[in-house]
Amino acid sequence: MQTAFTDEIKAIHDSIAEAVGEAKYKIWFRNSTRFTLTDEGLEIAVPNTFIAGWIENHFAKVIHNALRTVKGSTVPVRFVIDAVLTTPPRQASAVKTHPAVVEEVVRQAHFVPPLKLTLDTFVVGQKNHLAYNAALNVIREEKSPFNPLFYHGGYGVGKTHLLQGICNEYARTRPGTKWMYVSAEDFANQYVLALKTRRLDTFRNRFRSLDLLVIDDIHFLANKNVMQEEFLHTFNSIDLAGKQIVLASDAHPKQIGQLCEKLVSRFVSGMVVRIDAPNFETRCEICRRKAAAMKQKLSEDIVSFLAGQITGNVRELEGALLKLIAYASVSGQKMSLVSAKELLAEHILRADPVVHSSDITEVVARYFDVSTADIHSPKKDRLISLARAFCMYLTRKLTKMSFPEIGRTLGNKNHATVILACRKIEQALEGNQRLQWKSNDGYRNAPARDVLQELMEQIS
Questions:
Q1: Exposed site from 19, 104, 136, 346, fewest CB < 10 Å?
Q2: Within this chain, do residues 421 and 384 fall inside the same structural domain, yes or no?
Q3: Which residues fall within 8 angstroms of residue 223, CB to CB, at 6 or more apart?
């Protein structure tokens, strides 16, 4: 039994190393933990509570996935503090001050190796050509007039692809320059780690001396005042040095709730570009290129079927395509339109709709004569609360977003707020209550079901 446990522990370690990469595995697992597997579950011994907290907060999903892979199911995981792990002098010093940890975590964000996505694989179409041309401008111009370049749009429309593409081209065409691609969450985590380990100077020097800073999901900083202040100083330092900043968010800067005015002002001072879901022709070309990259060729009727059925999300489209190619490879049979429809029946039912939360917000704001920024704001007056409630209800009804996701999208609201708003609208619809509000054209009064029908028609 002990031998079996030993083999399983090695397999768990291997799975974790593959998931997080050799550098992070060495810092957080190989040199800082000891795994013990028993009939009760997995025990992870660590040198101190800091290491335990960091692993639990950042790698819990990875650990559970490794357990599921090795054991076939998840098992309980618990952390224990074992001072023996800190006895080697070198490791004891690292645990005490964590300088190596800070250096490694920050270094990991500076992707010296190429990132996965490149501009030459980005399919340009009617809905994203402006965003693509702006990316080229940043790369080609010695000093781009677009600073920052700010992308916003729904899930799976190509924001991350453009960000990584910019970094790769920047590194290729300007060797020796310092660039960094990181998510806003990683920026915040690195800041907290540097603060705890008294390495703020190192953190700030790393970020503020960059030639190019690219940050994804910048809306993560909403409602985090300390992080916003830190990033504002970082932004100003890079901008004053004449260097480039590129950002991406799921919403326009003015629609990100609880984002300080100074940051909003900085963001809109550059070029703000919205990226919409690709049209039919672009989706067809995405299918052709993705299949060609995998040395597969799909008939045009299958390409048209895929592009016609999965309309709102490139990732869903690529996922469906991969499923078809995998089936064809395993079965050794040529894919037909009939078999493609059968294989993707369930996938298409789960595919994201054309409508995104940003579309819903814009329609509702226009209908009630409020701004989208008001809907994302913490304001609670009657009109804005009504508009926000309809936004939340319609987003829940027309998309696959969960209550927490809707809350984050609409200004980092608590998921309980979203649930209450949806119940409020449901009750109004059930009794067909008359709703009254003041617009620019005067007071309006309409049954709840009529309001819903008008909104649905405008959204569609």
A1: 346
A2: yes
A3: 257, 258, 412
